Amino acid sequence: MLHLPVIRAGQPYESLKKTVVYHIQTGKSLVEVSQANRGLIARDLLKAPDNRAKLSAVPVADLIRMTAQAADSFMNDALPLGDTTQTPEDYVQQLSGTTGMPQSLVRLNMKKIRVVMADVDKVIDGLTRGLDLSVLDEGWTVQNGRPLSYICQADALGEILPSNSPGVHSLWVPTVALKVPLVLKPGREEPWTPYRIVQAFLKAGCPPEAFSYYPTDYSGAGEILMSCDRSMLFGGGSTVAPWKNDPRVQIHGPGQSKIIFGAGAVDRWEEYLDVIVTSVSANGGRSCINASSVWTPAHGDDIADALTERLGNITARPLDDPEAGLCAFLNVKLAEMIDGVIGSQLRQDGAYEVTTGDRLVKSEGLTYLRPA
After folding, report:
1. Residue 144 pLDDT more than 90?
2. 10 belongs to a structural domain
3. Considering its fold, how many domains does the chain have in total?
4. H/E segment holding residue 233
5. Which of 279, 295, 324, 368 is positioned for an S-S bond with 102, CB 3.0–4.6 A?
6. Same domain assignment for residues 118 and 203
7. Does residue 123 sit within a domain?
């Protein structure tokens, strides 16, 4: 069986405790993942200042070049995967198999990550509004005739990552070029992408001390959030709630995104139909920014009928179908619960269903919820 080790400041580590991740469709074990306990993580993070010193010694121009090289490796190369190697096609099939995301969408997300890495200089230029990046090397610079100083406020960036979509990893890849080491806690069903990105960076020559990869439980995730000066946290409402008032933690919780028509625009609703469809269905509905509902003061029936016609074409297809655009549910009970909630809401006065066909679809061992 495939095995993914913990990575401790660039060094692989096989732990006694491991978890097995299964193929969503066949139920067969696909990969064994070493687990890091809270104590190990806490001990390792005591060395965060030393790890950052190693990364800081590399000029920012070199780190930008390495990130661009890593983009090409991530997209095209066979990279280490534990004791074996992983081709790009292996990656696509493995990620699809453990998450239920169609392979076509995995490839689109790969391209998204590659673009951010390949153009990281442009990304950072936008984030810093054209700041002379020599300030990251020297600690100070002069811009527009004014002296500027720079102090990094984190020895490591913690990442508590999700399993829903690999595209979110494009958010943290610029961190390396900004000279901040990464502490990554992958999602249980999606250990693949952060591991592959790390291997691409290592192949490009980045200091190994910049990368720690800790598959772990809730207590280990909590240790990362408490020990890192800055973190990103992805998760559901109950996961992110304890941290929502911590200024060190950037929350990426449930999106609950809605499309709201104002009275002055609703008469032109047809102009926005493409935007609505894309907002609802892009990335198989897996993104936290996917629209969950449309609120309108008028033309509700017309909008619903038009959306039904467009979204009704999104059907359950095999994971390897190039036309697949709907993700299978990892948690079958969750899909059934959501379907039940929709059914109960439809019993309210004034509510009616416009979905064509079944909402809850079970096909070839997979469970789907079609847009309703």
Report:
1. no
2. no
3. 2
4. strand 230-234
5. 324
6. yes
7. yes
Cα 160 to Cα 168: distance, rounded to the nearest angstrom: 11
Q: What is the mean pLDDT of residues 49-62?
A: 98
* CB environment 25-46: b (16+ within 10 A), e (fewer): eeeeebbbbbbbbbebbeebbe
Q: Residues with Cβ < 8 Å from 100, sequence gap 6 or more?
A: 24, 319, 327, 328, 329, 330, 366
Q: pLDDT class for 254, splitting at 50, 70, 90?
A: confident
Does residue 359 belong to any structural domain of this protein? yes
In the listed set 252, 275, 296, which residue is the last one of a domain according to the structure?
A: 252
* The predicted structure's pLDDT at residue 189: 97
CB 136 within 8 A of CB 60: yes
Counts of helices then strands in the chain (DSSP H, E): 13, 18
Q: Strand (E) positions, 5-88? A: 6-8, 11-13, 18-22, 29-34, 79-81, 84-86
Picking from 233, 252, 271, the residue at the C-terminal end of a domain is 252
Distances (CA, A) of 49 to 55, 152, 155, 346, 364: 10, 11, 5, 56, 50
Q: Which domain holds residue 145?
A: 37-252
Here the CATH number for the domain that contains residue 360 is 3.40.309.10
Nearest to 169 by CA among 243, 128, 211, 116: 116
Same domain, 309 and 176: no
Total-model pTM: 0.95
Per-residue pLDDT band at 15 (split at 50, 70, 90): very high
**Is residue 223 domain-shared with residue 331, that is, in the same domain?**
no
CB-based burial label for 300 (10 Å; 0-12, 13-18, 19+): middle
Residues 225 and 277 in one domain: no
Instruction: Give the pLDDT confidence of 203-229 residue by residue, as tens digits.
Output: 999 999 999 999 999 999 999 999 999
pLDDT in tens, 88-100: 999 999 999 999 9
Q: What is the 3-state secondary structure (H, E, C) of 286-346?
A: CCCCCEEEEECCCCHHHHHHHHHHHHCCCCCCCCCCCCCCCCCCCCHHHHHHHHHHHHHHC
Do the Cβ atoms of 95 and 108 come closer than 8 Å?
no
Burial of 185-211, coded b for 16+ CB within 10 Å and e otherwise, reads bbbbbbbbbbbbbbbbbbbbebbbbbb
| pLDDT for position 143 | 86
Examine residue 22 and state whether it is found in any structural domain, yes or no: no
